[in-house]
Amino acid sequence: MTTATYVPPTREQVETIRRVLIHERDIERAAILLAAATCPDVKVPRLHAAETSTIRAQRPPAHHDLSAALLRITRAIDTETEGLYHHQDAGHPDATPALRAIAFRLLELGFTIAEHAGLHTHDIETAVARAYDLPGYDEATAG
Question: Cα torsion at 118, 123, 124, 125 (round to 10°)?
């Protein structure tokens, strides 16, 4: 399990894992279910495939609970940036490149999502590319 793919378990997933751990006293199975619930890409033993599919299905897709999905995204971003903000506020400039990189990745993801949502973001993408001094977006080649 890596923190890069970690997602917090839903209340329903926690209850399932709690039942297995406390009532059934199956520590190994509870650990497998916890890994499956919190790391969507983790491999699980074939023996537990059906049960891990069930626990993963307990997380509703974003379109079923958009506010929860947006909250998870916000929390993930806050988790990654809060320490960097404090570091930067304490006068350490080495946080700035990491913040710029995170901001750029979020913009990239946002443009991809916007494109799939049918939005045209070319002008915004060009402005962002200029702000980041990316090659091929200077004033002479714009338009």
Answer: 90
